[in-house]
Request: fold
Amino acid sequence: MRRSSHAALAAASLGLVLAAAPGAASAGGVVRPYGYAFDQVWSATVRLLRVDRGFKILEKDPETGYILFEFKESAKDERSWRAGVELLRDKDESGRTVIKVKIEIQDKPELPDAVLHDRLREKLRAEYGPPFSAPTDAPPPKDKPKDPPKDAPKDEPAE
Reply:
């Protein structure tokens, strides 16, 4: 089987393996958008998992944007959980480019997923500065109505 076919099969399997696990507490995982380039998010994610957190990476493919790893709550913990990260190129509602990152830990509540997202956001900001196209929660401010010219006729009261 060619590498690209293998990578596509592995990426598809990631979703099936994690979602089909009996009793999976985080069946959907946690998805957050990041306003950075794909290469920046990929690199920061791999380093966060392997270097910063010491997780064993089982498989990864930057071409299809997935990483399979073993999640441990601490380095001394003997128990591990199968986990995965997916990076998806997307656009937000304003048309800005974002990278959506889905973190899913099999049979774990969402808390570790959310904590990893928080650490990834901190790492990206520390290494690359503020996001260039981060989604905003508030809509852009509307223009103030312009004042009518001072010499414009005023409406006459209706009789």
Summary: The first helix runs from residue 3 to 19. The chain has three helices and five strands. Residues 25 and 156 are 68 Å apart (CA to CA).
